[in-house]
Amino acid sequence: MSGEAPLIAAIEAGGTKFNCALGRGPGEILETVRIPTTEPKQTLEEVGRWLSLVKSRHGAFAAIGVGCFGPVDLDEKSQTYGYITTTPKPGWQNTDVLGGLKNRFQVPMAFDTDVNGAALGEYLWGAGQQKDPLVYVTIGTGVGGGVLVNGRLLHGLLHPEIGHMQVPPPKKSKAVMRRGQCPFHAHCVEGYVSGPAIAKRWGVRPERLPVDSPAWEEVGEVLAYLCMNLTLTLSPKRIILGGGVMEQEQVLSMVHGAFIKLMNGYIRQPEMNAKIGDYITRPMLGANAGLLGALALGRMAANAAAGRG
């Protein structure tokens, strides 16, 4: 990208780590850092120090984009705008993520969910180009989803909480703990197929499960229900499945097979069968989708402040 593009600070705030970057776009990233997610005060202070450091090395940035794990408050009129709210992440409930950044850096800022950011990044530069409506789902430490409609990220009463969509309990489960592991809901997607849920339910960390473990077929079935519900409610042109759990290569084909069975020919479009691999697919930006999405959020804030829409 041209050096004339604004310099943006990007923060992908995750439950395991905060990924931060300084750059102008996917082709011009100047520096990155990974900061472990510990307790809020320490983590956010380390982020602020790093941003100050790169500012001294590369010059002032035009804006900061933050894509954050949630739930979060996205209502700019709210007293808790920029906060993480009722997250199950211990110690992070009611954390003011944006406040410290605003006190330290007097630049435009954009704040959204990490998965909304990832959806935006994939829409601009990845697997979601020319695909509107678009849904991006990450299956990792948690399960979250971002939705883009008419070129805009979907907000509403809160924001999409796709990971807590209710699904039927897996049939004839062979898991050592058959119940879902979400502290809020008995039968939601996150409680069955997030990385920590898989570890608790099957007694083995996901990366140590063999390829032919029945756990993966169960993950595929749960995600197929998720994709069916998204298809029937939002009618997206593409569903992107990312996150650490989807690094298991066999899972995507299991989702495809279970999804076709569940849909049972109800929607007669090629994407529901012959082109299923184009419809439910992996992120083109890979693990960088969230960080580049945060950069895209920051660029939007810079453009808005400059009167460019």
Structural commentary:
This protein has 309 residues and is α/β, with parallel strands linked by helices. It has helices spanning 40-58, 97-104, 114-125, 189-193, 195-202, 214-234, 249-263, 276-279, 289-305; strands at residues 8-13, 17-25, 28-36, 63-68, 83-84, 95-96, 109-113, 134-139, 143-149, 152-153, 238-242, 280-281. It has two domains: 8-114 and 287-305, Nucleotidyltransferase, domain 5; 127-283, ATPase, nucleotide binding domain (Nucleotidyltransferase, domain 5). The protein has nine helices and twelve strands. The strands form three sheets. A five-stranded mixed beta sheet has the order 3-2-1-4-7. The chain has a five-stranded mixed beta sheet with strand order 10-9-8-11-12, sandwiched between helices. The protein is globular and about 55 Å long. It starts with 7 loop residues before the first strand and ends with a helix.
What is the strand tally? 12
Q: Largest beta sheet: what is the strand line-up? A: 3-2-1-4-7
CATH class of the largest domain: Alpha Beta
Mean pLDDT: 94
Number of domains: 2
Order of helices and strands: EEEHEEEHEHEEEHHHEHHEH
Distance between the termini: 20 Å
Question: If you consult CATH, what is the topology of the largest domain?
Answer: Nucleotidyltransferase, domain 5
CATH architecture descriptor name of the largest domain: 2-Layer Sandwich
User: Which blocks of ≥5 consecutive residues have pLDDT under 50?
Assistant: none
Strand count, sense and barrel status of the largest sheet are: 5 strands, mixed
Count of alpha/pi helices: 9
CATH superfamily of the largest domain: ATPase, nucleotide binding domain
- Give the overall silhouette: globular
Quaternary status? single chain
Structural class: alpha/beta
Evaluate the radius of gyration.
19 Å
- Helix percent reads 25-40%
- Report the β-strand fraction as a percent range: 15-25%
